[in-house]
Amino acid sequence: MLQKGSQVRRELDVVPRLDLGDLLAGHPRLEIHASPLKRRLDVRQVHGRERTSPHGPCDPVRHRYTSRGMHGVPKDLPLDAFVGQMLNQIALGRFQTQLRFERGDISIEGGWELTSPDGQLIDRAQDHAARDCYRIHRILDLPVSRFEIDAPASFTLIFEPGYRFTVFDDSEHYESFSVNIDGRPGVYV
Prior knowledge:
The protein is mostly beta strands.
């Protein structure tokens, strides 16, 4: 009988071992974070200069290996599941903004922007140190009335009474967002 620890050790033995010293010497702006609870490594690449995209500069991007490709917003992104749902929680992290709904969530590691019903920019993704405050809270407790997909660049959730929350796929190499709906496989872009 295998114990949990030995099973993990056996699975790790089949993975080629890397010398982290060599890896870090070649990439001085690379951070590696072990997550013992999730049993995975997160590799974070910190860029020496800010990226520019339609919504302005972004936080350094977190690179996470996934089993699905990350090449553009798909035309059939299953956002219909969010229509009629209230936004219950907004979670802010160092490399991620999360929108949590009644039956699913959207985790954003790339660019986003929130505009008012009259088209004024309210808030957008930017470095935490560069902002005075967040204003994304204006869409809390509001239902999603509809959505738009501008494949392969972005998607927009429209909240009542007309707030527009747009998420951009602004990286060819890194995950920009994921959509997780209860009972369905997650979509990583």
